[in-house]
Design a protein that fits this description.
By secondary structure, this protein is mainly α. The protein has five helices and two strands. α2 packs parallel to α5, α3 runs antiparallel to α5 and α4 packs antiparallel against α5. The longest helix is centred in the last third of the chain and has 48 residues. The chain is rod-shaped and about 85 Å long.
């Protein structure tokens, strides 16, 4: 969303999505002060609209992240069991034998799958936490605008 603010000495264009992504409350306060003293005070309402739309999307995003986190946790458990089984089977064979080599490949694949799943879990948890911080920031922005 684009805000075009006109004031005595000129004008400025603010790309709201980029501006708010910094999550800097002092910059928001300065922007609101500039808007209130400008020829376009209706921009404050546009900021409120944008923030309220983003807040409406919070719950669906969080629920989606929670589902993915739960799925990843379950997959990590199953991958760990699979890895333990392959390791136990491999360890029963003599090192260097055909059976050992075959099961060693399975161990490698299971480790890779486990590593990728853990990375996906960390990514989803980071999104979840980022979403919470964003919601708190937007609540502060709404308090400033009121």
């Amino acid at each position: 969303m684009e805000l075009k603010i006109k004031y005595v000495n000129g004008s400025m264009t603010i790309y709201l999505e980029n501006f708010l992504s910094w999550q800097n409350i002092s910059k928001v306060k300065k922007l609101v002060k500039i808007i209130r003293s400008s020829y376009t005070p209706e921009c404050e309402g546009k900021i409120r609209e944008y923030v309220e739309q983003e807040m409406e999307q919070f719950e669906p995003r969080q629920q989606d992240n929670e589902k993915h986190i739960a799925r990843c946790a379950e997959k990590i458990k199953s991958c760990q069991k699979k890895l333990d089984n392959y390791t136990a089977i491999r360890d029963k064979s003599k090192k260097g034998s055909d059976g050992w080599k075959k099961h060693n490949q399975c161990v490698g694949q299971a480790r890779k799958e486990l590593r990728e799943t853990k990375q996906l879990l960390r990514s989803r948890q980071a999104d979840y936490n980022s979403n919470i911080r964003k919601k708190e920031f937007y609540q502060k922005v709404l308090k400033i605008i009121v």
